[in-house]
Amino acid sequence: MAPKESIHGSWSSRWAFVLAATGSAVGLGNIWKFPYITGENGGGAFVLVYLFCIALIGVPIMMAEILIGRRGRQSPINTMHTLAIESGHKPAWMYLGVMGVLAGFFILSYYSVIAGWSLEYLIKAASGVFTGQTASGIETLFGDFINDPKYLLLWHTIFMMMTYLVVARGVKSGIEKAVKILMPALVVLLLVLIGYAINTGSFSQGVSFLFNPDFSKLTWGAVLTAMGHAFFTLSLGMGAIMVYGSYLPKSASIAKTTFMIASADTIVALLAGLAIFPLVFANALSPGAGPGLIFITLPHAFGQMDGGVFFGTLFFVLIVFAAWTSAISLLEPVVTWLVENRGMRRATAALTSSITIWLFGILTVFSFPSDSPIKFEFSFIGETKTNGVFDILDILTANIMLPLGGFFIAIFAGWFMSRDATRDELDMGDGFDFNAWRFLVKWVAPTLVLIVFLNIFGII
């Protein structure tokens, strides 16, 4: 039988879990990635597909991942091992936990580098560097920055230290205290920026772009991107939600907390679009500018507007807070496994994990300079990429490992765990709600993931 309490501690309340899990979900995926992939894939049509993926795939799989975590009360690897045996199946299911922890490891290694850019740009914004700069001037600033590995390494190091310091303090004293401050602050900052965007004169254009669907621009690549982002933004398949679920009190409703987390995450992503696109349109800039939307397009916009120094600074504070709360959750699964399987103290496990991820992240750092020896071109679903390490890790995790992890989480919860075990954890009785979830997690979510995968490889 699974242990009743986690040796790592527990959240003080359901609200603490909601804040922590929402902090995990609300990260660069919402503030940085969602706006630019929306811009690249036609606006409102992409948003509809994304919301469809959240409702039919994201929510049922998140419920499954939380219930597995709470029932196992251990690191994702040990939880899958324990529950597989409890369910009368082979312990090889533990490799699903391994894949999730590895996905989180890979993501944090490059996520920390990109988050480091935000720290650099926070200082640039606060010091007025962007004021009066031309578009080419901003682009030159960005190019000079990412071509200097010394600065990339410096900020990568600082961000990993920030993440380590929180995780090393434990569940209640570290993670819970941090998210109770960072998450409300993040929401306030976002609302202030939206208030400013309303006064740009292009707010209605931003709303139209975000919510007016153009289905002619939808492709299977866009559908894959939407599905991958649904996993990425909800932190599914990477061990974070599973390990956070292991700290959830038994009295808390998994269904209610899941809906709250998914709703908050989606709302933040849409609010980020409402804050960003009006600024882009007000300055006659491109909404589909890729990653450069945050580090080239918006700095140019802030540099041209009244109050740009203040609001540009607020924006990058928002980016840093969002990245920090997500990074904390990505580090936690590795730390819990080291504590359980290697007998390390939490602080030692956090330091060991942080250093290892930091070292792996150096590959991403040195892949950005234009003269990098590890930069190369490759193709994925018809699109040519030129940044070897970053793009490979992004595709491997967001488009392959996370959906695969979610697929097998759904299969395990729907087909391998007993009906009684899942009903006991969800505490939903045997009515419509439970049966609807069970139908979605057994049939709908894995089928939709599988269809997209088969299409990628040309099978259908």
- Summarize the amount of helix as a percent range: over 70%
The assigned structural class equals mainly alpha
% residues in beta strands = under 5%
Number of strands: 2
Description of the molecule:
By secondary structure, this protein is mainly alpha-helical. It has a single domain (14-456), classed as Hydantoin permease, CATH 1.10.4160. Helices cover 75% and strands 1% of the residues. It is built from 18 helices and 2 strands. The chain has helices spanning 14-25, 28-40, 44-72, 76-86, 94-126, 135-146, 149-167, 171-198, 203-211, 220-234, 240-245, 254-282, 292-304, 308-342, 346-365, 388-416, 419-426, 432-456; strands at residues 378-380, 383-385. Strands 1-2 form a two-stranded antiparallel ribbon. A hairpin with a 2-residue loop joins β1 (378-380) and β2 (383-385). α5 runs antiparallel to α14 and α14 packs across α15. The longest helix is centred in the last third of the chain and has 35 residues, at 308-342. The model has no long low-confidence stretch (mean pLDDT 90).
Keywords, separated by commas or semicolons:
460 residues, two-stranded antiparallel ribbon, Hydantoin permease, globular, mainly alpha
Fold blueprint:
Layout: H1 14-25, H2 28-40, H3 44-72, H4 76-86, H5 94-126, H6 135-146, H7 149-167, H8 171-198, H9 203-211, H10 220-234, H11 240-245, H12 254-282, H13 292-304, H14 308-342, H15 346-365, E1 378-380, E2 383-385, H16 388-416, H17 419-426, H18 432-456
Antiparallel strand pairs: 1-2
Helix pairs in contact: 1-8, 1-12, 1-14, 2-10, 2-12, 2-14, 3-4, 3-9, 3-10, 3-12, 3-16, 3-18, 4-5, 5-7, 5-14, 5-15, 5-16, 6-13, 7-14, 7-15, 8-12, 8-14, 9-12, 10-16, 10-18, 12-13, 13-14, 14-15, 16-18
